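Consider the tokenized backbone below.
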């Protein structure tokens, strides 16, 4: 492949990647975004079902997961969409077949969503058991881990996509 072709592929990749991320941030910043609010409320509900396995007192009201001694309020950044957007942008920007992209997005996003539910449940547990550690896990440890996992999923998808090509 010529240098010019490599440069064009890189420009295309970053154009699609940055374009998707920009659209994502425009979408979530829309006033009165009913779709995003519904996503957050649904994520709260699913998380409460999972948490209910080990805490039967948990209740949910829209984006609030309520326990006897600890509550979690899901909002932008806490609902897990950013790592999923990073993964999606990477898959869409990478040169692969539509079939490979759809397969990667289906499996990757479902896996990331499940891991986010697990992350929310763990934050709920930490908030109940080690409340002094909640902020550290909520704002630093889990976000870093979740972004790394999203990037690892993307790298694994690239490897699988490349294996299919050869």
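A designed sequence for it:
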């Amino acid at each position: 492949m010529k240098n010019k072709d490599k440069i064009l592929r890189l420009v295309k990749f970053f154009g699609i990647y940055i374009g998707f991320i920009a659209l994502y941030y425009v979408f979530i910043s829309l006033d009165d975004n009913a779709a995003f609010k519904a996503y957050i409320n649904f994520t709260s509900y699913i998380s409460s079902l999972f948490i209910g396995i080990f805490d039967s007192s948990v209740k949910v009201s829209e984006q609030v997961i309520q326990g006897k001694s600890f509550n979690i309020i899901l909002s932008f950044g806490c609902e897990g969409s950013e790592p999923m957007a990073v993964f999606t942008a990477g898959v869409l920007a990478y040169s692969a077949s539509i079939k490979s992209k759809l397969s990667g997005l289906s499996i990757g996003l479902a896996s990331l969503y499940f891991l986010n539910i697990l992350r929310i449940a763990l934050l709920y547990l930490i908030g109940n058991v080690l409340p002094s550690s909640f902020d550290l896990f909520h704002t630093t440890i889990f976000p870093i881990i979740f972004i790394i996992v999203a990037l690892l999923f993307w790298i694994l998808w690239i490897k699988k996509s490349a294996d299919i090509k050869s």
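The first strand starts at residue 59 and ends at 61.
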